[in-house]
Amino acid sequence: MSFVQRVRAQAERHGHKLSYTFVEDRRGELAERRLTFAEVDDRARSTAAWLAGRRMEDQTALLLHPAGLEFLTAFLGCLYARTVAVPSPLPQTDPRALERAEGIIKDADVRLVLTDAANRDMLAAWLREVGLDGTVECVATDALDLPDPGAWTEPEIGPDTLAYMQYTSGSTSEPRGVMLTHANLLHNENEIWRAIGSPEEGVGVGWLPHYHDMGLIGMLLQPIYAGGDLYFASPISFVMRPALWLEMISRYRAGYIVAPNFAYEWCAARVTDAQIAGLDLSSLKFALNGAEPIRPSTLRTMVRRFGPAGFSEKAWAPAYGMAEATLVITATPLGQGPLVRRFDAEALERHEAVPVVPADGGAGGGVELVGCGRPITMTVEIVDPDSREPLGEGRVGEIWVRGGSVARGYWQREEATRDAFAGRTAGGDGPYLRTGDLGFLLDGELYVTGRIKDVVIVNGRNLYPQDLEEAAREVHPALGAAAAFGVEASGEHVVVVQEVREQRLGGTSAADLARTVQGELARAFGVPSMSTVLVDRGGVGKTTSGKIQRSRTRELMVSGLLPIVHAELTPGLAAGLTAGSAVGAAAVDEGG
Hints:
Number of helices: 19
Strand content: 15-25%
Protein name: Polyketide synthase
Mean pLDDT: 89
Number of domains: 3
Strand order of the largest sheet: 11-12-13-14-17
CATH architecture of the largest domain: 3-Layer(aba) Sandwich
CATH superfamily of the largest domain: ANL, N-terminal domain
Radius of gyration: 24 Å
Largest sheet: 5 strands, mixed
GO molecular function, one term: ligase activity
Oligomer: single chain
InterPro entries: AMP-bd_C_sf, AMP-binding_CS, AMP-dep_synth/lig_dom, ANL_N_sf, FAAL/FAAC
GO cellular component, one term: plasma membrane
Family: Belongs to the ATP-dependent AMP-binding enzyme family.
């Protein structure tokens, strides 16, 4: 079976009973635009017939749509036509987004860009500016005179047919096109469906970007795979007014949601008590949390703030996944709730997971980690990344994965594909997807501790950057996103680059705050060579999905391109940096 056949069967089964509804917030009033499953199928067939007329079978099409229903029908139209869809953020004025889109066009051999009428002229002008207008055509799918749905003839599409490419966000490397097949799509959607309890019907609510794996697979395509209604808004609407998401859950009686950890933090911080008072979140049974490190404090804060409105701790469903495995690898089943445990910090540095059991029954010490659930049908192994020996439970190593959701590989990158998708243990077992993530299994539960490339090694110790970043954020409310990494400059140094909102400093100076952060981290982690660099908002490198780009932030610091507010460097690091570095100059100016 192909994903197209699944969608068509669902459209025939549910017809006009189930639907997708795009919700816009217009001064507090919710405006809805709706397409039923039958209408989605009609539009997809018409789009596919048009693509077939352009001989787009097995060719790539870059989809640059704003949030809304048009992307859904264009994406499915590509699948119906056997055109390889490449979803991507709509670039507007952000130079990095424009550069990324240009890179994808060249890397994926794109000859057709699909967008909407509101953005078509802007994109066409941009293509002319970068010299691509002669080879790439830009078309507004909502302005086309499309053929009748009956004009579509289904091409030969099997499980192994390439469906679409998901370009990775580039948190640790240049973006790469992950090749996903129809079999991958079907397998991972079934994994998600089983995690949420295999419902016969249901309602989802979301706002995630459709060009990311969680938004596409977890939010947008799951309803038509499983059979259910979806109400969704734009990411911009959520960021501007996070209460909208919760109001939609309450209004439409949503049973499940999916989002990264930062979204829940944003709600807890920005939704007011007055807004909470009118909510009823008791319908929510499954709140998937994944795509980035899950903070125990976020889980507790959400329950504390929204528990009175019906948000249950049992709704939490921490999960782990990545684009190379379509989306979900492990998940917490419906109704189980999160598993949060404490582990000995020194043992974790030795790559051993030793639970801490408080003698007095209190909270105790150690490092809190949130379990990311268990594999549903995938195989997960923890392997020593150097010796390739499988490790037993309670040992930290690289997370290796195999199963039906693992992608075909990276587009036109044979070496990278071999490195990532052809992992074999010392005993020859495989092939496995080497995730590049570190973690361990304990009692069958997966705990993720960080990425191999991001681990900071100083004085023979292994420090996880997210631990440093979280500890730094807790020092003062003026502090925001942080990136922790190691620097080799006249010795080993740990650096934390942290965004600061100067208007929230109160009576504290930036210099005093930087020294406080430096002292707290040195004390908490026992590392004397700790440096703190405070930067303006936006100074910490992030991907389009909000993941911290530690390597990019490190490069900006070393090259002197950070928007520095204050740098508190150890003498060795200040001396070891290049003479022209803005960081080194700031440290000298401040006597750091």
